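Propose amino acids for all 334 sites.
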């Protein structure tokens, strides 16, 4: 017994590297636990990646059903003829677009839309900036500012239907506007503002200006309140007049807000439909015909749905161009 050499622990471990008795192979409790534990980890990481899409799924579904599919259907209709009213549709390619672009009524609607949009946006900017500077002035007390702010914002609180009815009553031949103008001797008799050929477009433009300037006013007022008073004090020290401070301090500081608001207002005003339809309906004749009312009449008065679809696609392209300009400006601003 004394001559027998027993193996050392290191030798025993080398002969049985698994550490199990008798050199048995490792069971599922060793490596098996690691493989089973990795599966929940993979499922957890996959769930984290798909989680945000799950939250966005309802919005994506709504956009798909309410926006993308209708737009796709309208684009498809613009390349066909006899859509909706006939069981068989004929592919005509770009014929509907050629018909729309060569239609004199489309040219008139485009011209009226440009005039209506350009004058409205410019007036919104001027009136909104003027009222915003008035509300931001230190020469008026806080109570007076509160009263003015309530009065100036009032048009924005009214619905389109109420605005249309209100202005129809005001500009009625027997309305308040005619009575006041006759009282001061500016007109000799009642004027049908929405029926006169040369007055209908200015009338609806004034109505749209009154309804839309509060949005500019509130946005520009927020921009004015964000301008540091140190800039005005430095300009005053340099001897700048009120006009000089306005040109060299106020306008450059408000430039990003003005450009953003102008682009948004162009998009909204060029697609204005309810105010026009509920006051003049595009008349008299075609003096207040806009692209929106022109497209609507093609579809639901003349039942030319394919041509109406082509007109709608043209309006969509114009809106997309303006939207791209707006997004690019916002990115450059950021």
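Proposal:
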């Amino acid at each position: 017994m004394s001559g027998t050499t027993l193996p050392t622990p290191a030798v025993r471990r080398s002969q049985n590297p698994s550490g199990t008795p008798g050199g048995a192979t490792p069971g599922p409790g060793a490596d098996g636990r690691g493989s089973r534990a990795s599966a929940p980890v993979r499922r957890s990481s996959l769930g984290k990646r798909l989680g945000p899409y799950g939250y966005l799924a309802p919005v994506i579904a709504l956009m798909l059903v309410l926006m993308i599919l209708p737009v796709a259907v309208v684009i498809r209709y613009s390349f066909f003829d006899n859509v909706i009213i006939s069981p068989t549709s004929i592919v005509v390619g770009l014929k509907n677009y050629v018909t729309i672009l060569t239609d004199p009524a489309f040219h008139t609607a485009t011209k009226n839309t440009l005039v209506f949009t350009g004058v409205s946006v410019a007036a919104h900017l001027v009136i909104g900036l003027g009222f915003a500077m008035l509300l931001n002035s230190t020469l008026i007390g806080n109570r007076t500012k509160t009263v003015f702010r309530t009065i100036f914002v009032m048009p924005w609180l009214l619905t389109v239907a109420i605005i249309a009815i209100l202005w129809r009553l005001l500009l009625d031949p027997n309305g308040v506007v005619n009575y006041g103008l006759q009282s001061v001797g500016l007109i000799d008799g009642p004027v049908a503002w929405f029926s006169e050929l040369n007055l209908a477009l200015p009338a609806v433009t004034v109505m749209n200006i009154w309804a839309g300037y509060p949005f500019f006013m509130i946005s520009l007022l927020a921009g004015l309140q964000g301008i540091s008073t140190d800039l005005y004090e430095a300009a005053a020290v340099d001897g700048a007049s009120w006009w000089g401070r306005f040109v060299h301090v106020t306008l450059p500081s408000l430039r990003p807000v003005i450009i953003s608001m102008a682009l948004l207002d162009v998009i909204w005003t060029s697609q204005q439909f309810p105010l026009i339809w509920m006051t003049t309906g595009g008349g008299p004749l075609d003096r207040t015909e806009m692209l929106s009312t022109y497209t609507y009449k093609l579809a639901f008065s003349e039942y030319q749905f394919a041509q109406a679809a082509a007109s709608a696609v043209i309006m969509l392209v114009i809106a997309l161009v303006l939207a791209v300009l707006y997004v690019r400006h916002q990115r450059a601003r950021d």
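The first strand starts at residue 80 and ends at 81. The chain has one domain: 96-333.
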